[in-house]
Amino acid sequence: MVTAPRGPVRRRTIAAASTALAAALAVGGLVALAPSATAGEFLTNGGFESGTLSGWTCDAGTAVVSQAHTGSHALQGTPSASATAQCAQNVTVAPNTTYSLTAQVNGSYVYLGVDGGASTWTPGTNGAYAPLSVSFTTGATQTTAKVFVHGWYGQPAYLADDISLQGPGGGTTTPPTSPPTSPPTTPPTTPPTSPPTSPPSQGLPTHALVGYLHATFANGSGYTRLADVPADWDIIDLAFGETDSPTSGTIHFNRCSATECPSVESDADFKAAIKAKQAAGKKVLLSIGGANGEVQLTTTAARDNFVSSVESIIDQWGLDGVDIDFEGHSLSLNSGDTDFKNPTTPVIVNLISALKTLKAHYGSSFVLTMAPETFFVQMGYQFYGSGPFNGQDPRCGAYLPVIYALRNDLTLLTVQDYNSGPIMGLDNQYHTMGGADFHIAMTDMLLTGFPVAGNTANMFPALAPSQVGIGLPASVNAGNGYTAPTQVDQALDCLTKKTNCGGYTTHGTWPALRGLMTWSVNWDRFGNWEFSHNFDSYFG
After folding, report:
1. Catalytic choice (242, 265, 294, 327)
2. How far out from the chain centre does Cα 54 lie?
3. Could you give the 3-state DSSP secondary structure of residue 523?
4. Does an H or E element contain 534, and which?
5. What SS3 class is residue 317?
6. How many CA atoms lie within 13 A of 167 on its CB side?
7. What is the mean pLDDT of the chain?
């Protein structure tokens, strides 16, 4: 979830430090190769010294300016929300030949490459020009290539100069005839594939309130006995089931000690409270993971340990199911694992198998919820795994194959809309946590579906609205991204009634949106129950 189990605010391993483009970790292939106008030069006007964009075909937002690396002129590109400010040039090349493309660039998220082939990029040059270089080899029958330079959607302006394509012999150029590459296409107004026809509800009310209860640790919010949790809460997630060794797969649930939590109830009273909550129609789940509970099911043995240990905990306490709150490095996609519908990474495949086994063991009454961070879900709209050039964070979008595989067994998905960097929504604009806009945009993505890594041929399908809740911190003490009650209400108005939406236009109206999740019951109690009381006042 969000707050450090042993302190006032739970540590987040990635999201708080991430930005909207934090999927990229490293700059590939940066070497200083000075351009030259030799017989092997294949580009026209690579230094823009004509004072024009002659020889290039460019997006809107591009111009020749005087901030040159050498000479008097350079290219400036100013990306928009729907274009990368690309300039491209077609050249005649020889088959089976290696070429070197170089440039001097200044800015953030500047890309250099050949269409359909190799490329490189930099996340930033610290306000000065820096070299980019990439080599590519043409195919056996290839006679033309289109090289490009561009920025990235919604990012600041960049500069490029001294762009050079070197290869054997003298080159000639042909202006590009095809337009620049399109940005990710906004999904259709209807879901790309149908959501589950009868998603599991397990007797939940139409609108449910979900909260995490600090059951294994104490922090600044104080210990709350399960029996003292008000009746407002429909799902209570016991935080946390953890593992001593991330790759063992064995989960343990060690209740908070009397030393750490002086008011902790006895095991017998805790078990009685679980039964009382269930008798009142509530669901009590084991939440697995959290910031300190890294779980990596790297082997089938770890998978089997996971299943057997979780079954043991569920049976011991008589719980209704599990909540998967894997954070940190628990889920990460291996290089080459590019299809979320057919994952090959062991930690992904084994988790899916383990959850399906648990579902089959307990049957239709088994409650399965997930609470991933935005980095692992909505960031998948732009980036998935390590990407085509292995330069991205391999955890990006890593929850998508798990959600997809369990979509017909998933009771509720409550993405953590907090402790997050800016995330691009379906409007191709970046949205920042803390206000209604962020929750509207992030939830719209789940209820509409979206192209993974911008590929419209690879759509992540919409979930049913009854399977989706919005995750928020209960108070300013609980985590970054606190949203005031009026802003929470605005988000609910927009998503369930399509009113009060502000500047964002949703792709539908979802009155069956299941509800809200918060970190945590303890922090809500600490804040005089502001979060739960607002939920009650809104839904009645």
Report:
1. 327
2. 40
3. helix
4. helix 530-539
5. helix
6. 23
7. 87
